[in-house]
Amino acid sequence: MSKYKSLWEYVQKKGSSSLKLTFEEIGQIAGVPLDHSFLKYKKELPEYGYQVGKISMKGQTVIFEKLEEQKD
What angle do helix axes 23-30 and 5-14 make, rounded to 10 degrees? Predict the structure, then answer.
């Protein structure tokens, strides 16, 4: 199980087209502080219909963006 699973579920549950969270908020939601491994784990997020749009080190925020639904 991913250490960020609770974060991915939170983002998915919000259902917003875009969601901005601070590093601190992410740590509280995930139950673990945001660290460098986030860059590896973010590859799991598309399974939940989202992607990481922008990570701001200066603002200490992450923007999550909803993926477009694929049409056959």
Answer: 110
